[in-house]
From TrEMBL:
SUPFAM superfamilies: Ribulose-phoshate binding barrel. This is Putative D-allulose-6-phosphate 3-epimerase. Substrate binds at residues 105, 182-185, 215-217. The active site is at residues 74, 215. Gene3D superfamilies: Aldolase class I (3.20.20.70). Catalyzes the reversible epimerization of D-allulose 6-phosphate to D-fructose 6-phosphate. Can also catalyze with lower efficiency the reversible epimerization of D-ribulose 5-phosphate to D-xylulose 5-phosphate. Pathway: Carbohydrate degradation; D-allose degradation. Belongs to the ribulose-phosphate 3-epimerase family. AlsE subfamily. Its cofactor is a divalent metal cation. Keywords: Carbohydrate metabolism, Isomerase, Metal-binding.
Amino acid sequence: MCRGRKCKRNNTSELVDGVTTSPTIISKENNGFVEDKQIMRKVEFSPSLMTMDLDKFKEQITFLNNHVDSYHIDIMDGHYVPNITLSPWFIEEVRKISDLPMSAHLMVTDPSFWVQQLIDLKCEWICMHAEVLDGLAFRLIDQIHDAGLKAGVVLNPETPIETIFPYIELVDKITIMTVDPGFAGQRFIESTLDKIVALRELREEKGYQYVIEMDGSSSRKTFKRIDEAGPDIYIVGRSGLFGLDEDIEKSWEIMCNDYEDMTGKVIS
Ligand SMILES: O=C(CO)[C@@H](O)[C@H](O)[C@H](O)COP(=O)(O)O
């Protein structure tokens, strides 16, 4: 069943009480027909492009341009994590065929070195690990904001949310790693979901404006538990999207069905 998935993505989001909402996700009746059209919290899917099939770069990006809200670009330096993946150059390549916002996830020991390069590329979201921001957080967040871009902070599974309290009201996005950073296809760390719940409660209580993202191993196996925690953005990588089929259109259809089966919500 298409349920509008092959149509251009819905752009009618609005902000209610600081939380982005849109009719994109709607309740599903048992018989599979959509009845309840109440507006619910919008959930975004952001593909992690380090897990895409580079042989099919143009085909996959062209398809996803009409179905997702942003792209997740993992940049690693081989030191902060024992891997090297995408780079600012890759962002330039995606830009040639997409006007969607891009979110750079910096898994690097020296974020200062990378932030200016990403600013020069006008990368819409620049996300830095909290664990390497000590003594740099305010300067780098200001630098990103002064360039008219959005600043994000990423927390490893072991990092408590209290670590970012000194600057939490300044950040536009908080990403909770639900796997150890560095690789696709790792085991989901369930206890990290408590941080998503806590960040939602804190946002409501204090009126903060950040969006909450989860990153790592979101798939049929974990959609239900993630949905209960309630992030705004799901990073989908190999386990939830690209690894499902060689054909991106089929992968997307399977991912939508998986999400709907496990959460009872419809992606239209
Ligand atoms: O930051 C990372 C890895 O450090 C993620 O963005 C991965 O790209 C994603 O986790 C891969 O997808 P999965 O295979 O985990 O679903």
